[in-house]
Amino acid sequence: MAVWLEQGDIVLFQGDSITDAGRVRENGNDLGKGYALMTAAQFSAKYPEKQVKFINRGISGNRVPDLQGRWQEDCLDLKPNLVSIYIGINDTWRRFDRNDGTSTEKFKEGYRQLLDQTASTGAKLLLIEPFVLPVPEDRKLWREDLDPKITAVRELAREFGARLLCLDGLFAQASTQADSAFWAPDGVHPSAAGHALIANAWLKAVGAAE
């Protein structure tokens, strides 16, 4: 697979806390401490001649409606060549901790609007499906709400010709090699090893890893 990024491309990471990963908001160049940083570091070390710029605009707690509210400023105005979107777990989580979930229909329609706006600019799209692991046990109850949203992300990837990271299966497979808590201590937020799993999968998706 040829590398999907060209000389001087701008890559935008968008999403929630997993993408945010403690980035310093006041520093527009800060990539946080998670998969976005790991991805950018590995890609840049392997392809320094491409001079690809990586930007992180993930915000902890965000859901699809939050992205809709800030998409112009935090995506379109940045004129990215590739937009990587990782959203969805909070659209499920809020149902269980605040009785304020996002229906699958609203989730998919809002997500589609984001993709419509982005695709119209000619930007490439990489979608990252949300995942959850059974840590603690009550996370198992979330599957009823999250699984349809994962399906929606997969359908949107096909609809828009986007590349897709199937994280739910990736983390389930990894959990056969080490306990689920090793990869995501609360079932949602990846450990350092979990972030590395995402970064490696991201690089493979753009043809930048063996």
Automatic annotation (TrEMBL):
Organism (species): Paenibacillus plantarum
Name of the protein: GDSL family lipase
Pfam families to which the protein is assigned, alphabetical: Lipase_GDSL_2
SGNH hydrolase-type esterase domain sequence ranges: 15-197
